[in-house]
Amino acid sequence: MLKRILLTLFVLLIPVFCFSQASDFGAWYRFFGNKQIDQRWNWHQEFQYRNFNLIGDTEQLLFRTGIGYNLTEGNNNVLAGYAYIYNEPYIGNTNEKTSFGEHRTFQQFITRQVFGRASLLHRYRFEQRFFSDDFRLRLRYFLAINIALNNKQMQDKTVYLSFYNEVFVNTEDPIFDRNRFYGGFGYRFSKHLRNEIAIMNQTTAFDSRNQLNIKTFINF
Questions:
Q1: Which one of 24, 46, 50, 93 is least enclosed by Cβ atoms within 10 Å?
Q2: Can you tell me the distance from the alpha carbon of 145 to that of 28, in angstroms, rounded to the nearest whole number?
Q3: What string of DSSP letters covers 117-167?
Q4: pTM reported for the whole predicted model
Q5: What is the per-residue DSSP string for 193-216?
Q6: What's the Rg (C-alpha) of the chain?
Q7: pLDDT of residue 148
Q8: Which CATH architecture has domain 2-219?
Q9: Where exactly are the structural domains of the chain?
Q10: Residue 46: which of 9, 97, 83 has the closest Cα?
Q11: SS3 176
């Protein structure tokens, strides 16, 4: 069954890699780390390398970290943290780029539920965004579901489907900031390591773009 799933994934991604030469298709390479300090406290680390193409045309570099606290064992977590985002957007419809940084503080609440093969996660995040000449506030709601395919539940050596949708809203005009829809496959090697490969569509008030996403999750 695992071979059939991987073959299906490869076939589905062939047109993606062919299309990826177009300028509106990018790639995000994402690392998520979590250190369980004790039964209650955890340390979150995150690094993302975002490209306008598959590699080499930097769109963003993102570093995020925070300290979390489990309100209940494993299911409900509050976390506060800091992020730095380096941006290299294109100027209008030209080939010229500019660059700027953003400092960000944030607070979030995560709750999880398990229904047989399906694992559900809700995340509510509030962000304070600091630019050199501006300050903004933003709210985010993230809903994700992972569905085990070759096992009856998420455990070691599990292939799974992964989907999420995240909506971003500002506290001032424009209210709608963006929406991200993500779908792909993952493999859980153990409780310490899993990987995902997926396609994500990001829609803003101005455009809609697709990105290949490759993600690594490490718990230690």
A1: 93
A2: 20
A3: TEEEEEEEEEEEEE-SS-EEEEEEEEEEEEEESSSSSS-TTEEEEEEEEEE
A4: 0.88
A5: EEEEEEEEEEEESS-EEEEEEEEE
A6: 18
A7: 98
A8: Beta Barrel (2.40)
A9: 2-219
A10: 83
A11: strand
